[in-house]
Amino acid sequence: MTTTTPSTPEQRDDHRPSVHPGPSTPRWPRGARTIRYGGDYNPEQWPEAVWREDVALMRDAGVDLVSLGIFSWVLLEPRPGQYDFRGMDAVMDLLGDAGVDVDLGTPTAAPPAWLWDRYPDEHPVTRDGVVLGRGSRGLLSPSGPGYRAAAAAVTEQLAARYAGHPALAMWHVHNEYGAPISESYDVHSVRAFRAWLAERYGSVEALNAAWGTTFWGQRYADWAEVDAPRTAATTVNQAQRLDFARFTSDALLACYTAERDVIRQYTPDLAVTTNFMATNCPSLDYWKWAREVDVVANDHYLAAERTDNHVLLSMDADLTRSLAGGRPWMLMEHSTSAVNWQPRNLAKRPGELGRNSLAHLGRGADAVMFFQFRASRTGAEKFHSAMLPHAGADSRVWREVVGLGADLGRLAEVRDSRVPARVAVLWDWESSWAQDLEWRPSVDLRHRERTEAWYAALWRRGVTIDFRHPSHDLSAYDLVVAPASYLLRAQDGAALTRYVDGGGHLVVSFGSGLVDEHDAVHPGGFPGPLADVLGLRVEEFLPFRDGETGTLASGGTGRFWADDVVLEGAVPVDVFVDGRAAGQPAVTRNDRGTGSAWYVSTALDDGTLDAFVGDVLVAAGIAGDLLPEGVETVERVGEDTRWRFLFNHGDGAVELPDGLAAGTDVLGVLDDHGDVRVLPPGAAAVLASEV
Ligand code: GAL
């Protein structure tokens, strides 16, 4: 393989998101100015008579958008190059006549059997060398030329045929890239990985330097010697694995953009997107992906058994809005009740379907969609809930679906309003890819665990956050939280330092700033580019035994981790009084001008974390009292109106505290007792007031 001309450092660093997040060509589905309502629709599973019944039921429920054809490749192209659009034509016409718009899927997440037969060397291969077979769903090798050509061909046929169809409102490319196939170790992927590396590094020498291949004698003399980081005798070069993760996200993104660009030739004005899984897809760098979709669309499923799953829902919705750059986004899929793929598939209880939907709406969704409209009788997902369950229309779920449609109608004016936030929490997929590899100081050093802990503490105070990548412009925020930001580029650390020097407030948790973009320890040790702004150095990590804790001077406890800290300007705020870290600071503060930088060297228990977050919010000038337990609030703000969303996730009625109770109760769910307004258990309320 030949070496390409080295690109400039800026060009090579195209792995960084741009300064501002969000789609570079934003568009919304064509048509009605409503909160879009509907779901995946798979009529191919049913005889035509059922389609008519479906469409009548859709109208009863206020459904005005369905995602169609997502898994119908073999029906549209039963043999290579032979197309049959009769079924799709009939459904498109039926929906169009009924005023139900279509989010038309490209069917490339369900390759037909003939494609598998055609390209045996494009079958995906796992890290352990298992060659995956057909009979499920997914794709062939993301870098497979045969797969890509076939995907482009069927996409072109669809785009050409339906470009002018009155029902067509937008495009839904593929389905959930990254699941179930992400990394593939087939020959085409290895070849494409080498080309990607050549583009990034320019020369094998530069690759050797970046990957630190002198260690364990891994030096490469030629690109052809470089392999994907498949399972080996023991742990594999971590910089190599990090680059393969980056490559994989890019390879899948190229599959998406190829289909999108075919579509754009036929319908340049229609929105094209693909469905994300914001906090639940570990393998795609959605900051980069979000630039390439016209509207951010997200799928979210509750972790049914987690009692805090409503907090995780909010976190997922906030990340989705952040990916959208604050613009309205589409909740493309969630479930009316149980899913079928978790160990125990708990049904949602009465009211939960609507509460979940409005929680997404409150955090910026302007479309509420489900998987799927009618429950399947056959196939892998027959035990998955749907808008229309197996029990039929005479059922609680269907009545709630109809009720939700009516509620969304009452909330139509919320559309296009924004969700203001004064706090940013850093989120970086590259950092979590690196951090989750083997041979780290402790398995308890987890970005996800820390992010959830900090997010929940802010949620309990009703403080809305945006997620941001460390390279984004953070100057609009009063407070930035960096939870276990393991990989932090020197320039991003410098930007965080400037942010504090400009009057910002920064909280950094343990395990941050440890390595650079090549997973190499920063020169000068820990916490690398954050040492100066935090006013300290970490000489050594002090990870805890499983279950071990340390007592703090404040009376709280620290878990998982502590550091041997050398203070160089920072003052201790809380200190370990016993255990392996006795005498070491657990919390420090470093004031710089009107800004401040705080370091938290351990996982604080919830009560101590709550108190600490309260102190930091005061320092940053942000209001945020602890809310009654189980109560959630978030606000959307339009030109003349603000809508306060309130949720009671608990079992008891809650008197609304002053400051949260004002406004017109749009859905009429509060119990008013004189001056006191009560939020019933399980309720979702929206209070409208003038801006
Ligand atoms: C999603 C997927 C849907 C359906 C759903 C079930 O991840 O996009 O096609 O499988 O899960 O929960």
Automatic annotation (TrEMBL):
CDD domains associated with the record: A4_beta-galactosidase_middle_domain (cd03143)
Any Pfam family: Glyco_hydro_42
SUPFAM superfamilies: (Trans)glycosidases, Class I glutamine amidotransferase-like
GO-annotated molecular function: beta-galactosidase activity
Segments forming domain Beta-galactosidase trimerisation: 421-622
GO cellular component: beta-galactosidase complex
Region (Disordered): 1-32
Gene3D superfamilies per UniProt: 3.40.50.880, Glycosidases (3.20.20.80), Golgi alpha-mannosidase II (2.60.40.1180)
EC category name: hydrolase
Keywords associated with the record: Glycosidase, Hydrolase
UniProt catalytic activity: Hydrolysis of terminal non-reducing beta-D-galactose residues in beta-D-galactosides
GO biological processes: carbohydrate metabolic process
Protein's UniProt keywords contain Hydrolase: yes
Chain positions recorded as substrate binding sites: R137, N175, W341
Protein family according to the UniProt entry: Belongs to the glycosyl hydrolase 42 family.
The protein's name: Beta-galactosidase
Naturally occurring in which organism (per UniProt): Curtobacterium citreum
Lineage of producing organism: Bacteria, Bacillati, Actinomycetota, Actinomycetes, Micrococcales
